[in-house]
Amino acid sequence: MNQNASNEAGSIYEESVAILREIGDKNFLAYSVRRLGLLAWREKDYGKAIALCQESLSLNRELGDLRGVLACLAGFADIAVVQEKFARAAQIMAAVETQLAAMGMRLLPIDKLEYERNLALLRANMDEKALAKFWVKGKGMSFEQSIAFVLEET
After folding, report:
1. Cβ(2)–Cβ(21) under 8 Å?
2. pTM of the model
3. CATH number for the domain formed by residue range(s) 3-152
4. Which of 15, 40, 113, 123 could form a disulfide with 45 if both were Cys (CB 3.0 to 4.6 A apart)?
5. Torsion on CA atoms 10, 11, 13, 17, rounded to nearest 10
6. If phi over 0 gives left and psi between -120 and 50 gives alpha, with beta otherwise, what is residue 85?
């Protein structure tokens, strides 16, 4: 995404967030806040990205939107990959995959694209044995343990 497109998208999402806060629509707010977080992540503003993903996660939990929660977890994995916290990213990604399968859900296509791109980066940067070790740890986490794990280092 070029800088102009990123700036335009950011402006649109910020306007959406303001309107959604004003009208109290938490469902679309959770999505828009997460998208803003992903733009911040692309701009390497990891503090802002984490804060926005935390807000989206909180909103999705309040709403009981399980797919939204898992998309937020995937967002935390994206941030971990670019910060080169590969063990952390592997655990989160494994937890996301496991929970999606257990719930019979899939990520939205746009989230799936990011997830797959970051999984490829993870595989390119991690030794296969280490990846398998942390993947097993992530697969063993419950839904609530997964949430606690992403929040403990943020």
Report:
1. no
2. 0.89
3. 1.25.40.10
4. 40
5. 130
6. beta
